[in-house]
Amino acid sequence: MQNKKETPANSVIKLILEGEDGSLWGRVNYEDDLIVEQAQSVNALQKQIEILLKDLHGLDPNSYEFQLEYDLTAFFEQFDYLKITKVAEISGLNGSLVRQYASGKKFPSAKQAMKIQDAVKQLATELLKVHIYTGL
């Protein structure tokens, strides 16, 4: 067992999430090691990767946080309540094309992926401004 390592304060480790047909995989590249795991949920996947980082590199899970980055298939499976057609409309992309990205049949260019990300963030910003009338 390795000695416990401390990563710099507020260290961020990129966890890339990929999915297809309900499966969820995650990968982390840490100190030239590619660490890959599969789980049923994002939380379970994060815990499994934390264990591997501790076992392989002696990292204390409290010394870093994950930055989650989704491929579009995993994103639309995780956030299945979003309407792909609406996200496509806001991003200025063809709905059929975005559905193909979501299903993994096609893969977006970096520019198209950024358009989709910007559309999702625009939706999130709009939702943050919502106040539901409670009668009070």
Keywords:
globular; 5 helices; 4-stranded mixed beta sheet; 136 residues
Describe the fold and architecture.
- Helix content is 43%, strand content 24%.
- It is α+β, with helices and mostly antiparallel strands and 136 residues long.
- It has a four-stranded mixed beta sheet.
- β1 (11-20) and β2 (23-30) form a beta hairpin.
- α3 packs across α5 (110-128).
- The radius of gyration is 18 Å and the shape is globular.
- It starts with 10 loop residues before the first strand and ends in an 8-residue tail after the last helix.
- The model has no long low-confidence stretch (mean pLDDT 92).
Set down the secondary structure blueprint.
Blueprint: E1 11-20, E2 23-30, E3 33-39, H1 42-57, E4 64-70, H2 72-78, H3 84-91, H4 95-103, H5 110-128
Parallel strand pairs: 1-4
Antiparallel strand pairs: 1-2, 2-3
Helix pairs in contact: 3-4, 3-5
Q: In this structure, how is the largest beta sheet organized?
A: 4 strands, mixed
How big a fraction of the residues is strand? 15-25%
Number of helices: 5
Overall radius of gyration: 18 Å
Low-confidence stretches: none
**From the helix content, strand content and strand pairing, which structural class follows?**
alpha+beta
Mean pLDDT across residues:
92
- C-alpha geometry: globular
